[in-house]
Every structure is written in structure tokens, then in C-alpha cells.
Amino acid sequence: xxxxxxxxxxxxxxxxxxxxxxxxxxxxxxxxxxxxxxxxxxxxxxxxxxxxxxxxxxxxxxxxxxxxxxxxxxxxxxxxxxxxxxxxxxxxxxxxxxxxxxxxxxxxxxxxxxxxxxxxxxxxxxxxxxxxxxxxxxxxxxxxxxxxxxxxxxxxxxxxxxxxxxxxxxxxxxxxxxxxxxxxxxxxxxxxxxxxxx
Length: 198
Prior knowledge:
This is Legumain. The protein has a four-stranded mixed sheet with strand order 1-5-6-9, with no helix packed on it. A three-stranded antiparallel sheet has the order 2-3-4. A two-stranded antiparallel sheet has the order 7-8. It is α/β, with parallel strands linked by helices and 198 residues long. The radius of gyration is 17 Å and the shape is globular. Helix 4 (156-167) packs across helix 5 (174-184). A hairpin with a 2-residue loop joins strand 2 and strand 3 (76-78). It is 25% helix and 21% strand.
């Protein structure tokens, strides 16, 4: 409901102006959206859960998918008022593995310098596959510039993997999606990290 939004209460991610915000449950909004809360959600924090908030309640037989989209810089991704650093994310993912919070975990990040969140930080032996919009030293770029909304509706990497996911068959592999997204993303270098066999 930002005053600059000519379509109050609506969010579009493509030129067709299909609202992707309406009727979508929002578990954390506003001041609740912090790196600390994000980490607690991933770790299944009991205090949050007891307060009636949703947390990840996964176990050793579950596959987990995480998509993060925001601004970034070397070794960090942005939240509305502060940052999550690569070391803290790596520490959290290692703890999730030690606590048997997943069988396999897939993590996609759309941000500038997104590769720095995993490069030299994500182990290859904890059943996590990660892909990023950019390498550790470059920007990622906006996509679908819209004159009515007066902003871009998405980012190049995210738009390509999401549109691929919507049309791909159930047998499409993560590696196939990575190769497709990498080929379609022209303004940054799509990267992959961790266990590439997933």
C-alpha cells in the first residue's frame, strides 16, 4: 500500500498485471521481517511457534525450498532495516543439517553479489543445493520495466526460473532449470553452489 503504487494493495510480477499478493497468507510483515526472525523461522524456534507464528517444522524426510529476493552487497542480503550476513546464513544452514531439519534443501537467492552468500561458505556435503542471480562480485538486474507501475516488476534471474518452473514438467531437474536460467539471464552470471548432485 505504498503511496507510490498506482495499484494500492496489488503486486504484479509480469506485464499481464496478475495480482500475486491478494489472498496470499502473510505470516510476517513490517517490523517482523528481520534477519533474526528469518533465522528463527528456519530453525523452528519454539518461542515464535508458541506465540502463534509459523516456523519451519521439517524433519529428516522433508525436502525444503527457500527463495530469497532483496538487495544485496558483498557478503550480505538486505532486510527492510538491517542485513543478513553470509557467515550467519552458513551457520544457520549447518545447524539445520545437524538438527536433521531436512533431507535435501534447495536455496535460490536473487540479489546483487548473491554468490557471496555461498561462495567459500556453503559446504558440499550437507545436502544443500544453492543457486544465485549473480556471482560474488556483480550486480543482478531488474526485468519487465513497466510504465504504468513506474518500476520493474521482477528481476532477470527470478523471472526466468519462475516462468520455467511454471511450464516445466515434473521430471525437470534442478540442473536443467539452472542451465536454462543461466542461458536466459544475460546481465549477470547465474551461479550454483553446494551439492550439485541434488
